[in-house]
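Table S7 (text form). Paired inputs.
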Amino acid sequence: MQNIWFIGRKHIEEGKCHSLIVSSQQCDDSGTGVFSVGIRTHPDAVLDAFSLVDGRRFFLVITIFTFKTMFKNKNWKPLFIQVLTVIFMIFFPFTKVTLEMDFKRNHDDRMSVVNKINEGAITPNVPYNDSIIHLPGEYQGVSKGGGDILIEKKEKGMKVLFFTFRGIVDSFSGFVYSSSGERPRTGDFGGDFNKVEKLDEHWYFVSSG
């Protein structure tokens, strides 16, 4: 016997176990399958593995095979795990957690960019738009969608937008640094904001479009 993680077709024969379920199954010499933490299969088992790039299709495939396994073997554990997974996917705030991690992880680098703008070391450098700065290589990761940031200077101070999503026209989201602490308003960076959330002193998250 050996431990193998795979996605495959579940089929139990005499002395063999072929499976296509992301789960754990132990097959003994009699061909009996028992779910556990890892997959244990007969050395002669044939694996029909494949790759899935769409998470929804992946989940659908697993759900189908879970029900097939449940009715064939009267094993309710896979269904219980599937239900818990669905509940987790519905209620866990993936986007919020991801944004919070991004903000904290890249905060120092973004502040470094802001300081360099104040010092004049980084200036607008895109010929067709004097409010766009294409960041140097070491700072490319702090703004999504090509490593560009937007800058606006007004009487009350300066605002800098670091993209977390960059669509077309006024469809975007990102972190805004406001030197005066002023809350971003519709019209800033050409946006029509449907969400403005304060994250920290001088920092806001905005979503437009």
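Next pair, protein 2 of 2.
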Amino acid sequence: MTNYDLNRTYNESLQQLQTTDKVHADTFNPRFQQLINNDAAHKDAIDNHTQQLASHATSLGDIATLTPWQTTVIDLNGKTIGNFSIPQFQVKLGTVTLA
């Protein structure tokens, strides 16, 4: 079994599975690949934001606090299927600590 190669690019378009689609890896893998790429892009954006926040706090010699963030995850039919959240954290002198 091989691992996915990460593209690390966010893409909002995701092809919907149809009942007529063949149950085969060639059908599902591209969709899973896109979801994994989106997750990697989100992680990169969060890491970049954290680094910028740490740099800013270090240059000011101050504490910067990012408040908790939460969003609701919905399916393609608009049904709520869960929540995704990032806890509050503080950045002081380039060190990130979860609150």
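The mean pLDDT is 74.
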